[in-house]
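Dig into what follows:
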Amino acid sequence: MQTLTFKRGVHPHDGKALTKDEPIKVILPKENSELFFPMSQHIGAPCEPIVQVGDYVKVGQKIGEAKAFVCSPIFSSISGTVTDIRPMLTPGGAMSPSIVIKNDGKMDEIEGLTGKDYQSMSNEEIITAIKEAGVVGLGGAGFPTHIKLAPPPGTAIDYVLINAAECEPYLTCDYRLMLEQGEELIKGLQIVLKLHPNAKGVIGIEDNKPEAIAYLNGLCKDIPNIEVATLKAKFPQGSEKHLIKAITGREVPSGALPSAVGCIVDNVDTIISIYNAITEGKPLMRRVVTITGGAPANPGNYQIRIGMTFTDLLEQIGGFKVSPSKMIAGGPMMGPTMYTTDVATTKTSSALLCFTEEEAITPEESNCIRCGKCVSHCPMGLMPFMLNALVLQDNGEAFCKENGLDCIECGSCSYICPAKRQLAQSIRATKKVEMGKKAAAAAAARAAVAK
């Protein structure tokens, strides 16, 4: 069987042995615990709270309304009373207005959470149901799924690609979902393919997951428009652009979306959430999180209710056997560092890495030796050492001319650098500044036209 891949990239130690054989365990919030629901859990505009302090809410009740085009509603994952609405820290480090709900332990559901047969639904009804269920990309980006599944009119979609690579080291939540909820994954993909009947569904899985490859191959062997593609275990194999290149050979132009080359890419848990939304009538209220590293007492994969804090989750699974020296929300290559576990889990919370002092050793940064390793391994074909130099010169204009905004912030350059330069971190920070400038300029131009 051919193993597909892309040019360049890196091969970090995957660290998945800690949790890959740990079945998913369901952890429910404790009675009287408080859950926190940030109004920004997706790319785009934040939601607006539609409940007030003192309101009683039920499981599945909408508590955050999406008022903007790029937005996604938020639902209560418990029943209980709204005790506060205040800014809270999110796993990414930002502050977001958040609804605080005290869990009464009853898990009373709102009426009407019933599914439908997708075959009897129109495409518009399916898209609306996915939108109203608050489904977003659960691989980390959090882009509202209903927008992704409805590209501009006239756009021909040839491929619906399922990102099952899970290329970030240590993460195994998608792997376990493939093994334990593979049928739901296939049925969810069939729902998406109904929207794009001329497309082929391809599930891309790295070759370090042979059990998942064999199992899903068996499930889809008699389905003519769905197949499994075996990918080389390499980072960042799960990046949209690189997944598309590896499977289809197509290249997404700079600044364009996958639909520009006839592709839609969705994460494993996103597709399962689509199945839950349509077939079960359930909005997005749960997700699977990998807790791993040398510090937790019981590393594993846990299905939680969105809104639980990492502190509450850790308490229920045995806490730490040693105090963690470093904690990361998500994978070690791209995830942000956290200084506290008193942070709410959100739709995009895929993992919490808790490293011991030995695991978390970070060598000191030294001078660039111009070895070119960052260039030869950059999956976007950029020159990270040059971008880093322009950052240090505070030369944002030249940074943009050297295609710095095309960086996908994967961290391959920092990983491979023998001088341990903080390449990805510096580029990420400058990207944020320069993109802010572009957004401000565009807003000013629109205002000028409006006048």
Notes: Residues 373-450 form one domain.
